[in-house]
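Re: that chain you flagged

S.,

Sorry for the slow reply, it's been a week of failed gels. I finally had a moment to sit down with the sequence you sent. For the record, here it is as I used it:
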Amino acid sequence: MARSYRSEACRRQGHRSHIGVGIVTPKAAIEAILFVTEAPVPVGELAEILEMPVVEVEALISEMGREMEERGSGLVVRSTAGGWRLYSHPETYPYLERFTSTATARRLSPAAIETLSVIAYRQPVARSQISEIRGVDSDSAVRTLERLGFIEEVERLDLPGNPAVYGTTRLFLEKLGMQSVSDLPPLADHVPPAQALEGLEDSLRPGS
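Prediction finished late last night. Pasting the structure tokens below so you have them in one place:
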């Protein structure tokens, strides 16, 4: 069955849809969709959403790309993996790297910082051992650190349940500007890891 389109009169007016007190053009709608998507959107899908021919959508995407380039936008529109998506401009990468570093630090809770300190100094260490050292359940903190890429599973113990043991990652060392965990400050056996890692915490905080 052929796809239905809006009236020719509507299309001649720019195919605009009223939302609240503002006016949204098809090009603005495309930009919004490509901004929020997590995966490239096929042009056919955009055409279906906007109820427009594919060729017109392609023309709008090209126009949008030219306008972004002309005004020096921090975003670029690219065709990849069979669809379209907005990406950060390559020249913005240094600023994004700084932001990512500080934004990640803002997401680390005191519990995560403490858990990371235990793993850094006691690795390889099992989750149960981490909880025993901290005196509280550490499952949530371990999951957070693993998701952020600061720690990783390094092996499974030959024990009932095959518990995983964790160690720090290359990203962890890069954040601290270190080549190896041997570069960490010395830790006396009687000193709680969280206290010894004040420098680590400072390094993971915004502005470091």
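What I noticed first: The longest strand covers residues 75-80.

Talk soon,
D.
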